[in-house]
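Supplementary notes for students who missed Thursday's class. We covered one full example, reproduced here. Read the sequence, then the structure, then the short commentary at the end.
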Amino acid sequence: MEKLLITIDGPAGSGKSTISRLLARHLNYKYIDTGALYRGIAFETVSHKIDPDDEPQLNGLLERIDLGFEMTEKGLRLMSNGRDITGQIRSPEISMMASRVSAKPRVREKLFSLQKKLGKEKGAVFEGRDMGTVVFPEADVKFFLVASVEERAKRRFLEMGDPPSQTLEEVARDIQKRDEDDSNRKIAPLKAAPDATTIDTTSLDIHAVLGKMIDVVRSVLQEK
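Structure (token representation):
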């Protein structure tokens, strides 16, 4: 059966990560979390105390970073210069820094070539914010997930440990701020591709969303 290149974009908390993994598993495709790559750069930026607006320092850091995914007994892990940083990139601080660094042309340039390389052989589900609009405008299937701010904040809050690192109200404020930053940036703003299938996940469970996606994928495969 022909392999497809599938992109799933959308704002934070819309369900991209969970549904992307499930869809990739269902199709026996590779799952690529491109947001983790930006978080990886954000993590290194914070770790080295670099101001992302300091272009020479940021460029120097980008030249030294070797990011990539590696399959281990723990699953797919994000590696930075041979070090597993998967468990260190999900804090609120890294989330906000990821939004800042993702607006930098040099950062996007570095990750663009890596993402294109990962998608060359197709048979992959790419999760991100500009996969269907900028990185893979030629993708076979494109999805854009949305959900209300309230629902997305609740999901993120429930994912936090006990005790949570933020209140529900703080999580909602961070999500709104990131939505504004990602949607209004000049480079690759967050938006649905014209040919993307938009799914509102606010009141849908995971299996309902997955079912809708599988129907679209089957339709495309039948046309091919």
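Commentary. The chain has one domain: 5-223. The two ends are 10 Å apart (CA to CA). If anything here is unclear, bring it to office hours.
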